[in-house]
Amino acid sequence: MTTAAAGSPRTYQVRTYGCQMNVHDSERISGLLEQAGYVRAAEADEQPDVVVFNTCAVRENADNRLYGNLGHLRPVKDKHPGMQIAVGGCLAQKDRGDIVRKAPWVDVVFGTHNIGSLPVLLERARHNTAAEVEILESLDVFPSTLPTRRESTYAGWVSISVGCNNTCTFCIVPSLRGKEKDRRPGDVLSEVRALVDEGVLEVTLLGQNVNSYGVEFGDRYAFGKLLRACGDIEGLERVRFTSPHPKDFTDDVIAAMAETPNVCHSLHMPLQSGSDDVLRAMRRSYRSERYLGIIEKVRAAMPDAAITTDIIVGFPGETDADFEKTLDVVRAARFSSAFTFQYSKRPGTPAATMDGQLPKQVVQERYERLIATVEEITWAENRKLVGETVEVLVAVGEGRKDERTGRLSGRARDGRLVHFDAGSLAGQIRPGDIVHTTVTYAAPHHLNADGEPLSHRRTRAGDAAEAGRAPRTPGVLLGLPTIGAPAAVPAPTGGCAAR
Question: Helices marked H in 96-250 — which ranges?
Protein backbone atom coordinates (compact mmCIF):
# COMPACT_ATOMS: atom_id res chain seq x y z
CA MET A 1 0.00 0.00 0.00
CA THR A 2 1.29 3.49 -0.83
CA THR A 3 0.21 6.94 0.21
CA ALA A 4 -0.14 8.11 -3.41
CA ALA A 5 -3.51 7.66 -5.06
CA ALA A 6 -3.59 4.86 -7.63
CA GLY A 7 -1.99 6.01 -10.87
CA SER A 8 -0.72 9.30 -9.47
CA PRO A 9 3.00 10.01 -9.04
CA ARG A 10 4.54 9.78 -5.60
CA THR A 11 5.45 13.08 -3.96
CA TYR A 12 8.69 14.03 -2.23
CA GLN A 13 10.11 16.65 0.09
CA VAL A 14 13.79 17.39 0.79
CA ARG A 15 14.83 18.99 4.09
CA THR A 16 18.32 20.46 4.00
CA TYR A 17 20.74 21.36 6.79
CA GLY A 18 24.23 22.84 6.61
CA CYS A 19 26.49 24.39 4.01
CA GLN A 20 26.18 25.47 0.38
CA MET A 21 27.46 22.06 -0.69
CA ASN A 22 24.48 20.44 1.01
CA VAL A 23 22.08 22.93 -0.58
CA HIS A 24 23.49 22.04 -4.00
CA ASP A 25 23.40 18.31 -3.19
CA SER A 26 19.71 18.72 -2.37
CA GLU A 27 19.16 20.19 -5.83
CA ARG A 28 20.64 16.97 -7.20
CA ILE A 29 18.48 14.83 -4.93
CA SER A 30 15.42 16.67 -6.27
CA GLY A 31 16.61 16.21 -9.85
CA LEU A 32 17.16 12.48 -9.33
CA LEU A 33 13.74 11.96 -7.78
CA GLU A 34 11.97 13.91 -10.50
CA GLN A 35 13.83 11.98 -13.18
CA ALA A 36 12.58 8.81 -11.47
CA GLY A 37 8.97 10.02 -11.67
CA TYR A 38 8.42 11.70 -8.30
CA VAL A 39 6.75 15.11 -8.02
CA ARG A 40 7.71 17.73 -5.45
CA ALA A 41 5.15 18.09 -2.68
CA ALA A 42 3.60 21.45 -1.91
CA GLU A 43 5.25 23.15 1.06
CA ALA A 44 2.03 22.85 3.07
CA ASP A 45 1.85 19.09 2.47
CA GLU A 46 2.47 17.44 5.84
CA GLN A 47 2.48 13.88 4.50
CA PRO A 48 4.54 13.55 1.31
CA ASP A 49 5.23 10.01 0.13
CA VAL A 50 8.99 10.45 0.57
CA VAL A 51 10.85 12.75 2.98
CA VAL A 52 14.62 13.07 2.51
CA PHE A 53 16.79 14.59 5.23
CA ASN A 54 20.07 15.94 3.82
CA THR A 55 22.10 16.28 7.00
CA CYS A 56 25.08 18.19 8.35
CA ALA A 57 27.56 16.93 10.95
CA VAL A 58 29.68 19.99 11.70
CA ARG A 59 27.84 21.13 14.82
CA GLU A 60 27.88 19.37 18.16
CA ASN A 61 24.10 18.95 18.35
CA ALA A 62 23.56 17.87 14.73
CA ASP A 63 22.48 14.36 15.68
CA ASN A 64 20.02 15.63 18.32
CA ARG A 65 18.40 17.80 15.69
CA LEU A 66 18.08 14.92 13.23
CA TYR A 67 16.67 12.41 15.69
CA GLY A 68 14.27 15.02 17.05
CA ASN A 69 12.93 15.63 13.56
CA LEU A 70 12.74 11.91 12.85
CA GLY A 71 10.82 11.44 16.08
CA HIS A 72 8.25 14.06 15.07
CA LEU A 73 7.79 12.31 11.74
CA ARG A 74 7.24 8.83 13.17
CA PRO A 75 3.52 9.24 14.05
CA VAL A 76 2.91 10.79 10.62
CA LYS A 77 4.44 7.75 8.97
CA ASP A 78 2.50 5.37 11.23
CA LYS A 79 -0.74 6.92 9.99
CA HIS A 80 0.28 6.75 6.34
CA PRO A 81 1.49 3.27 5.28
CA GLY A 82 3.86 3.39 2.35
CA MET A 83 5.45 6.67 3.36
CA GLN A 84 9.27 6.49 3.19
CA ILE A 85 11.97 8.39 5.08
CA ALA A 86 15.54 8.68 3.77
CA VAL A 87 18.57 10.16 5.54
CA GLY A 88 21.61 11.31 3.60
CA GLY A 89 24.47 13.79 3.89
CA CYS A 90 27.38 14.11 6.29
CA LEU A 91 25.67 12.80 9.42
CA ALA A 92 24.53 9.72 7.49
CA GLN A 93 28.10 9.20 6.29
CA LYS A 94 29.31 9.43 9.90
CA ASP A 95 26.62 7.46 11.77
CA ARG A 96 25.79 4.88 9.08
CA GLY A 97 23.79 1.95 10.46
CA ASP A 98 23.35 3.66 13.83
CA ILE A 99 20.59 5.77 12.29
CA VAL A 100 18.36 2.75 11.58
CA ARG A 101 19.21 1.29 14.99
CA LYS A 102 18.14 4.50 16.76
CA ALA A 103 15.23 5.23 14.39
CA PRO A 104 14.04 1.91 12.92
CA TRP A 105 11.24 3.65 11.01
CA VAL A 106 13.85 5.10 8.61
CA ASP A 107 13.76 3.33 5.23
CA VAL A 108 16.98 4.46 3.52
CA VAL A 109 20.38 5.72 4.66
CA PHE A 110 22.85 6.93 2.00
CA GLY A 111 26.13 8.80 2.22
CA THR A 112 27.87 11.76 0.63
CA HIS A 113 29.54 9.58 -2.01
CA ASN A 114 26.48 7.85 -3.48
CA ILE A 115 23.68 10.40 -3.83
CA GLY A 116 22.87 8.85 -7.20
CA SER A 117 21.79 5.60 -5.51
CA LEU A 118 18.80 7.15 -3.74
CA PRO A 119 16.02 6.20 -6.23
CA VAL A 120 17.31 2.62 -6.39
CA LEU A 121 17.49 2.36 -2.60
CA LEU A 122 13.97 3.74 -2.17
CA GLU A 123 12.59 1.24 -4.65
CA ARG A 124 14.53 -1.63 -3.06
CA ALA A 125 13.30 -0.69 0.41
CA ARG A 126 9.71 -0.66 -0.84
CA HIS A 127 10.09 -4.03 -2.52
CA ASN A 128 11.85 -5.71 0.40
CA THR A 129 9.90 -3.85 3.13
CA ALA A 130 13.23 -3.45 4.94
CA ALA A 131 15.67 -0.60 5.55
CA GLU A 132 18.42 -0.09 2.98
CA VAL A 133 21.76 1.32 4.20
CA GLU A 134 24.43 2.04 1.61
CA ILE A 135 27.53 4.08 2.49
CA LEU A 136 30.49 4.22 0.12
CA GLU A 137 34.01 5.12 1.24
CA SER A 138 34.86 7.05 -1.92
CA LEU A 139 33.05 8.92 -4.65
CA ASP A 140 30.89 6.77 -6.91
CA VAL A 141 30.38 9.33 -9.68
CA PHE A 142 31.09 13.06 -9.58
CA PRO A 143 27.85 14.59 -8.27
CA SER A 144 27.57 17.10 -11.11
CA THR A 145 26.94 14.26 -13.55
CA LEU A 146 23.59 13.77 -11.82
CA PRO A 147 20.37 15.48 -12.93
CA THR A 148 19.69 18.66 -10.99
CA ARG A 149 16.53 20.60 -10.19
CA ARG A 150 17.75 24.14 -9.57
CA GLU A 151 16.11 26.19 -6.84
CA SER A 152 16.70 29.59 -8.44
CA THR A 153 15.91 30.95 -11.89
CA TYR A 154 18.67 33.54 -11.70
CA ALA A 155 21.57 32.10 -9.67
CA GLY A 156 23.15 28.65 -9.70
CA TRP A 157 25.78 26.64 -7.85
CA VAL A 158 28.41 24.85 -9.92
CA SER A 159 30.71 22.41 -8.12
CA ILE A 160 34.28 22.49 -9.37
CA SER A 161 35.57 20.04 -6.74
CA VAL A 162 34.41 17.93 -3.84
CA GLY A 163 36.35 16.86 -0.77
CA CYS A 164 39.28 18.51 0.96
CA ASN A 165 42.98 17.72 1.43
CA ASN A 166 43.40 19.94 4.50
CA THR A 167 43.51 18.62 8.07
CA CYS A 168 42.06 21.45 10.19
CA THR A 169 41.67 20.10 13.71
CA PHE A 170 38.13 21.48 14.18
CA CYS A 171 36.70 20.16 10.90
CA ILE A 172 35.15 16.79 10.18
CA VAL A 173 34.52 17.48 6.47
CA PRO A 174 37.58 15.65 5.04
CA SER A 175 36.61 12.40 6.74
CA LEU A 176 33.03 12.67 5.43
CA ARG A 177 33.58 14.17 1.98
CA GLY A 178 36.92 12.51 1.25
CA LYS A 179 40.02 13.75 -0.53
CA GLU A 180 39.69 16.51 -3.10
CA LYS A 181 38.41 15.43 -6.50
CA ASP A 182 38.53 18.03 -9.28
CA ARG A 183 36.33 18.25 -12.34
CA ARG A 184 37.93 18.94 -15.66
CA PRO A 185 37.63 22.61 -16.69
CA GLY A 186 35.67 21.73 -19.82
CA ASP A 187 33.03 19.92 -17.77
CA VAL A 188 32.68 22.88 -15.40
CA LEU A 189 32.33 25.37 -18.25
CA SER A 190 29.79 23.14 -20.02
CA GLU A 191 27.60 23.17 -16.92
CA VAL A 192 27.94 26.95 -16.60
CA ARG A 193 26.91 27.39 -20.25
CA ALA A 194 23.93 25.06 -19.74
CA LEU A 195 22.76 27.22 -16.83
CA VAL A 196 23.18 30.42 -18.84
CA ASP A 197 21.19 28.85 -21.67
CA GLU A 198 18.39 28.37 -19.11
CA GLY A 199 18.50 32.09 -18.28
CA VAL A 200 20.69 32.01 -15.17
CA LEU A 201 22.63 35.28 -14.72
CA GLU A 202 24.86 34.46 -11.74
CA VAL A 203 26.99 31.40 -11.04
CA THR A 204 28.86 30.55 -7.84
CA LEU A 205 31.79 28.15 -8.26
CA LEU A 206 31.67 25.84 -5.30
CA GLY A 207 34.16 23.64 -3.47
CA GLN A 208 35.43 22.90 0.01
CA ASN A 209 38.60 24.74 -1.07
CA VAL A 210 38.00 26.27 -4.48
CA ASN A 211 41.40 27.84 -4.99
CA SER A 212 43.27 24.55 -4.63
CA TYR A 213 41.38 23.51 -7.77
CA GLY A 214 43.74 21.82 -10.21
CA VAL A 215 45.73 19.89 -7.60
CA GLU A 216 44.44 16.61 -8.99
CA PHE A 217 45.56 17.32 -12.56
CA GLY A 218 48.71 19.25 -11.65
CA ASP A 219 47.92 22.87 -12.52
CA ARG A 220 48.22 25.23 -9.55
CA TYR A 221 46.96 28.12 -11.71
CA ALA A 222 43.84 26.28 -12.87
CA PHE A 223 41.43 28.29 -10.73
CA GLY A 224 42.51 31.66 -12.08
CA LYS A 225 42.26 30.27 -15.62
CA LEU A 226 38.76 29.00 -14.86
CA LEU A 227 37.65 32.44 -13.67
CA ARG A 228 38.99 34.02 -16.87
CA ALA A 229 37.25 31.37 -18.99
CA CYS A 230 33.94 32.22 -17.30
CA GLY A 231 34.46 35.75 -18.56
CA ASP A 232 34.11 34.50 -22.13
CA ILE A 233 30.63 33.06 -21.61
CA GLU A 234 28.08 35.37 -23.21
CA GLY A 235 25.09 36.08 -21.02
CA LEU A 236 26.86 35.23 -17.76
CA GLU A 237 26.70 38.48 -15.79
CA ARG A 238 28.06 37.54 -12.36
CA VAL A 239 30.62 34.99 -11.19
CA ARG A 240 31.30 34.28 -7.51
CA PHE A 241 33.18 31.52 -5.69
CA THR A 242 33.31 30.02 -2.24
CA SER A 243 35.30 29.25 -0.22
CA PRO A 244 39.02 29.82 -0.81
CA HIS A 245 41.74 28.91 1.67
CA PRO A 246 44.36 31.59 2.43
CA LYS A 247 47.22 29.10 2.09
CA ASP A 248 46.36 28.48 -1.58
CA PHE A 249 45.50 32.05 -2.53
CA THR A 250 47.74 33.17 -5.40
CA ASP A 251 48.29 36.50 -7.10
CA ASP A 252 46.98 35.19 -10.43
CA VAL A 253 43.54 34.70 -8.86
CA ILE A 254 43.51 38.34 -7.71
CA ALA A 255 44.47 39.41 -11.23
CA ALA A 256 41.73 37.23 -12.74
CA MET A 257 39.15 38.75 -10.38
CA ALA A 258 40.24 42.29 -11.22
CA GLU A 259 40.55 41.79 -14.99
CA THR A 260 37.48 39.64 -15.74
CA PRO A 261 34.43 41.94 -15.96
CA ASN A 262 31.80 39.44 -14.85
CA VAL A 263 33.76 38.21 -11.80
CA CYS A 264 32.28 40.04 -8.82
CA HIS A 265 34.54 42.05 -6.54
CA SER A 266 33.51 40.05 -3.51
CA LEU A 267 35.63 37.59 -1.60
CA HIS A 268 34.66 35.24 1.21
CA MET A 269 37.91 34.10 2.84
CA PRO A 270 37.74 32.34 6.23
CA LEU A 271 40.03 33.77 8.90
CA GLN A 272 38.95 31.50 11.82
CA SER A 273 41.34 33.24 14.25
CA GLY A 274 43.67 36.23 14.32
CA SER A 275 46.06 34.51 16.73
CA ASP A 276 48.99 32.68 15.16
CA ASP A 277 49.10 30.31 18.13
CA VAL A 278 45.45 29.38 17.65
CA LEU A 279 45.89 29.07 13.89
CA ARG A 280 48.76 26.67 14.57
CA ALA A 281 46.57 24.62 16.94
CA MET A 282 43.83 24.64 14.31
CA ARG A 283 46.38 23.38 11.79
CA ARG A 284 45.62 26.31 9.50
CA SER A 285 48.78 26.70 7.44
CA TYR A 286 48.89 30.51 7.26
CA ARG A 287 49.40 33.25 9.82
CA SER A 288 47.66 36.57 10.39
CA GLU A 289 50.32 38.54 8.50
CA ARG A 290 49.84 36.36 5.43
CA TYR A 291 46.06 36.74 5.68
CA LEU A 292 46.17 40.52 5.92
CA GLY A 293 48.70 40.60 3.08
CA ILE A 294 46.18 38.89 0.78
CA ILE A 295 43.51 41.42 1.71
CA GLU A 296 45.93 44.28 1.04
CA LYS A 297 46.64 42.90 -2.45
CA VAL A 298 42.93 42.37 -3.18
CA ARG A 299 42.08 45.94 -2.20
CA ALA A 300 44.99 47.33 -4.21
CA ALA A 301 43.65 45.59 -7.31
CA MET A 302 39.94 46.16 -6.48
CA PRO A 303 39.39 49.09 -4.10
CA ASP A 304 35.64 48.40 -4.10
CA ALA A 305 36.02 44.74 -3.04
CA ALA A 306 33.74 43.52 -0.26
CA ILE A 307 35.51 40.93 1.89
CA THR A 308 33.67 38.57 4.20
CA THR A 309 34.96 35.87 6.50
CA ASP A 310 34.33 33.09 9.06
CA ILE A 311 35.59 33.39 12.65
CA ILE A 312 35.56 30.82 15.46
CA VAL A 313 35.58 32.05 19.07
CA GLY A 314 36.62 29.92 22.02
CA PHE A 315 38.82 27.32 20.32
CA PRO A 316 40.50 25.07 22.93
CA GLY A 317 43.40 26.89 24.57
CA GLU A 318 42.40 30.34 23.27
CA THR A 319 43.57 32.96 25.79
CA ASP A 320 42.36 36.52 26.30
CA ALA A 321 45.47 37.67 24.42
CA ASP A 322 44.66 35.32 21.53
CA PHE A 323 41.15 36.70 21.33
CA GLU A 324 42.41 40.29 21.35
CA LYS A 325 44.58 39.42 18.35
CA THR A 326 41.47 38.24 16.52
CA LEU A 327 39.82 41.60 17.23
CA ASP A 328 42.97 43.35 15.95
CA VAL A 329 42.77 41.47 12.63
CA VAL A 330 39.05 42.22 12.32
CA ARG A 331 39.74 45.92 12.77
CA ALA A 332 42.57 45.83 10.23
CA ALA A 333 40.67 43.78 7.64
CA ARG A 334 37.50 45.96 7.64
CA PHE A 335 35.20 43.08 6.71
CA SER A 336 31.87 43.89 5.09
CA SER A 337 30.36 40.91 6.93
CA ALA A 338 31.48 38.02 9.10
CA PHE A 339 29.97 34.65 9.97
CA THR A 340 30.85 34.21 13.63
CA PHE A 341 30.71 30.92 15.51
CA GLN A 342 31.20 29.75 19.05
CA TYR A 343 33.49 26.72 18.99
CA SER A 344 31.62 23.47 19.47
CA LYS A 345 33.05 19.98 19.53
CA ARG A 346 32.80 17.95 16.35
CA PRO A 347 32.95 14.29 17.36
CA GLY A 348 35.83 12.61 15.59
CA THR A 349 37.99 15.73 15.24
CA PRO A 350 41.33 16.26 17.04
CA ALA A 351 40.09 19.50 18.62
CA ALA A 352 37.30 17.66 20.44
CA THR A 353 39.83 15.97 22.73
CA MET A 354 42.29 18.85 23.12
CA ASP A 355 43.14 20.26 26.53
CA GLY A 356 41.94 23.75 27.35
CA GLN A 357 38.24 23.41 26.48
CA LEU A 358 36.78 26.76 27.55
CA PRO A 359 33.79 27.39 29.82
CA LYS A 360 30.61 28.41 28.04
CA GLN A 361 30.42 31.78 29.80
CA VAL A 362 33.94 32.73 28.65
CA VAL A 363 33.15 31.82 25.05
CA GLN A 364 29.83 33.67 25.19
CA GLU A 365 31.42 36.87 26.50
CA ARG A 366 34.08 36.83 23.79
CA TYR A 367 31.48 36.05 21.15
CA GLU A 368 29.38 39.07 22.13
CA ARG A 369 32.45 41.32 22.02
CA LEU A 370 33.35 39.99 18.59
CA ILE A 371 29.87 40.61 17.21
CA ALA A 372 29.89 44.16 18.58
CA THR A 373 33.27 44.86 16.96
CA VAL A 374 32.25 43.32 13.63
CA GLU A 375 28.99 45.26 13.50
CA GLU A 376 30.71 48.54 14.33
CA ILE A 377 32.98 47.99 11.32
CA THR A 378 30.35 46.66 8.90
CA TRP A 379 28.06 49.58 9.71
CA ALA A 380 30.86 52.08 9.10
CA GLU A 381 31.76 50.39 5.79
CA ASN A 382 28.13 50.31 4.67
CA ARG A 383 27.62 54.00 5.51
CA LYS A 384 30.32 54.83 2.94
CA LEU A 385 27.89 53.62 0.25
CA VAL A 386 25.06 56.03 1.07
CA GLY A 387 24.46 58.10 -2.06
CA GLU A 388 26.12 55.53 -4.32
CA THR A 389 24.33 53.78 -7.20
CA VAL A 390 24.23 49.99 -6.94
CA GLU A 391 23.24 47.28 -9.40
CA VAL A 392 20.82 44.86 -7.73
CA LEU A 393 19.96 41.36 -8.91
CA VAL A 394 16.43 40.99 -7.53
CA ALA A 395 16.00 37.95 -5.32
CA VAL A 396 13.31 35.83 -3.69
CA GLY A 397 12.87 35.83 0.06
CA GLU A 398 15.97 37.84 1.02
CA GLY A 399 14.09 40.39 3.12
CA ARG A 400 11.94 39.16 5.99
CA LYS A 401 10.26 42.57 6.40
CA ASP A 402 9.78 43.26 2.67
CA GLU A 403 6.08 42.42 2.62
CA ARG A 404 5.39 44.75 5.53
CA THR A 405 7.58 47.58 4.24
CA GLY A 406 6.61 47.26 0.58
CA ARG A 407 10.23 46.82 -0.47
CA LEU A 408 11.91 44.25 -2.69
CA SER A 409 15.37 42.83 -2.04
CA GLY A 410 18.41 41.56 -3.88
CA ARG A 411 22.17 41.47 -3.91
CA ALA A 412 24.54 44.14 -5.17
CA ARG A 413 27.49 43.01 -7.27
CA ASP A 414 29.69 43.03 -4.17
CA GLY A 415 27.27 40.66 -2.42
CA ARG A 416 25.70 43.18 -0.04
CA LEU A 417 21.99 42.78 0.69
CA VAL A 418 19.92 45.69 -0.62
CA HIS A 419 16.27 46.42 0.25
CA PHE A 420 14.78 48.81 -2.31
CA ASP A 421 11.54 50.61 -3.07
CA ALA A 422 10.11 49.68 -6.47
CA GLY A 423 8.37 53.05 -6.74
CA SER A 424 6.33 53.43 -9.93
CA LEU A 425 7.69 50.05 -11.10
CA ALA A 426 5.83 48.15 -8.36
CA GLY A 427 4.36 44.98 -9.82
CA GLN A 428 6.69 45.04 -12.82
CA ILE A 429 9.97 43.94 -11.20
CA ARG A 430 10.44 40.16 -10.96
CA PRO A 431 13.03 37.98 -9.19
CA GLY A 432 15.95 37.70 -11.60
CA ASP A 433 15.52 41.19 -13.05
CA ILE A 434 18.25 43.85 -12.73
CA VAL A 435 17.64 47.20 -11.03
CA HIS A 436 19.92 50.20 -10.55
CA THR A 437 19.09 52.28 -7.49
CA THR A 438 20.65 54.75 -5.06
CA VAL A 439 21.53 53.82 -1.47
CA THR A 440 19.75 56.05 1.04
CA TYR A 441 20.45 54.31 4.36
CA ALA A 442 22.94 51.81 5.76
CA ALA A 443 22.64 49.28 8.58
CA PRO A 444 25.28 46.78 9.78
CA HIS A 445 23.85 43.95 7.67
CA HIS A 446 22.06 45.61 4.76
CA LEU A 447 21.52 48.71 2.65
CA ASN A 448 18.24 50.51 1.92
CA ALA A 449 17.39 52.35 -1.28
CA ASP A 450 14.11 54.20 -0.77
CA GLY A 451 14.03 56.39 -3.85
CA GLU A 452 12.65 55.66 -7.31
CA PRO A 453 14.82 53.06 -9.12
CA LEU A 454 17.08 54.62 -11.75
CA SER A 455 16.55 51.74 -14.17
CA HIS A 456 14.93 48.31 -14.49
CA ARG A 457 16.02 45.61 -16.95
CA ARG A 458 13.77 42.61 -17.56
CA THR A 459 15.72 39.38 -17.99
CA ARG A 460 15.17 35.79 -19.11
CA ALA A 461 15.63 34.76 -15.47
CA GLY A 462 12.77 37.09 -14.55
CA ASP A 463 10.64 35.57 -17.31
CA ALA A 464 11.31 32.10 -15.88
CA ALA A 465 10.43 33.24 -12.35
CA GLU A 466 7.20 34.78 -13.57
CA ALA A 467 6.31 31.55 -15.39
CA GLY A 468 7.19 29.40 -12.35
CA ARG A 469 9.95 27.53 -14.18
CA ALA A 470 13.00 26.17 -12.36
CA PRO A 471 16.15 25.52 -14.40
CA ARG A 472 17.07 21.86 -14.77
CA THR A 473 20.39 20.46 -15.89
CA PRO A 474 20.09 16.87 -17.12
CA GLY A 475 23.42 15.38 -16.05
CA VAL A 476 24.22 11.91 -17.36
CA LEU A 477 21.48 9.31 -17.49
CA LEU A 478 22.37 6.52 -15.08
CA GLY A 479 19.72 3.91 -15.91
CA LEU A 480 17.78 4.82 -12.77
CA PRO A 481 14.53 3.01 -12.07
CA THR A 482 11.37 5.05 -12.40
CA ILE A 483 7.99 4.77 -10.77
CA GLY A 484 6.13 6.03 -13.82
CA ALA A 485 6.59 8.90 -16.22
CA PRO A 486 7.07 12.29 -14.56
CA ALA A 487 3.84 14.20 -14.53
CA ALA A 488 3.73 17.04 -17.08
CA VAL A 489 2.29 19.56 -14.63
CA PRO A 490 3.67 22.77 -13.11
CA ALA A 491 5.50 22.48 -9.80
CA PRO A 492 3.20 22.89 -6.78
CA THR A 493 2.78 26.41 -5.48
CA GLY A 494 5.84 27.52 -3.56
CA GLY A 495 7.95 24.65 -4.84
CA CYS A 496 10.22 26.84 -6.96
CA ALA A 497 11.11 29.42 -4.34
CA ALA A 498 14.81 30.19 -4.33
CA ARG A 499 16.71 29.80 -1.10
Answer: 98-102, 118-128, 173-177, 185-197, 222-230
